[in-house]
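In this section we walk through a basic example: taking a raw amino acid sequence and producing a predicted 3D structure, encoded as discrete structure tokens. The instruction is simple. Fold the sequence below.
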Amino acid sequence: MTSGVDQLTQRQQELLKLWLPGAEVVKDHSWGLVGTTVLELRHDGARFIAKAGDESDQHIARELRAHRNWLGPLTLRGRAPLLAQADEAAKLLVTHYLPGDLVVGSDHERHPDTYRQAGELLARLHEQFAVEDDDFETRAKEKALDWLAKPHRIAPEVVARLSAEVESWPTPRVTLVPTHGDWQPRNWLVQDGTVSVIDFGRADLRPPLTDFARLAVQQFRSDSALEAAFLDGYGGDPREPAAWHRNRVREAIGTAVWAYQVREESFERQGHRMIAEALAVG
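The resulting token sequence is shown next.
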């Protein structure tokens, strides 16, 4: 192994050599905006995906939790990657390669059947179990205010309006389920017409409606037929209006501030648009 491996820690390199001796790096799939290295490897005639986190990484632990506890309904159908090896302390995991092409940017991104399948998969993930939580809304409220206290380019008068609204929110008990955290075509694959899902680095227990957030501000916004197909596959719509509005505002704030921090101007523009749209219906 050479290409891409030098981004890993010494311990991560040692573990990969132990688990996949003599493996060849086929491609570096790292996104570049976060400290996660993603390598496609070939070993003994099979392909694998290795994910390694840097010192500040929190995604590997989340993804490993999802693999160990929540992905059975998807992996049994061959619709999510199967875990091969992992070391949480080293922030390293290896999954069996899941074949397929990314949906984002392809013709499949505009096809309703893609969204019907994605809705069905999301329902399988969500329906495994549910827990009641008295503190989720309080934590989410505090996080939104913390985002607003960080450096960003949101106008002062908009910050004042957002802060006042967030401060006024109630904090009711909510139902949490296993969620993906970034459910959108960027994390969907299609192989021979079948949709599968990857990248569980943001997986956590959250309200079901949170997994609708990315789609609502992107693909659903431009084509209502995609939203209808997704809801048909999912089997309903969990977006209770008041809770959905709070989530829209939180997502908008987080997108604008995070994108500014990582210097991703297209996402930052999207975040500012999301803020304007959320406040317009608030």
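Looking at the output, two observations stand out. The CA atoms of residues 198 and 205 lie 17 Å apart. The longest strand covers residues 36-43. In the next section we compare this with other chains.
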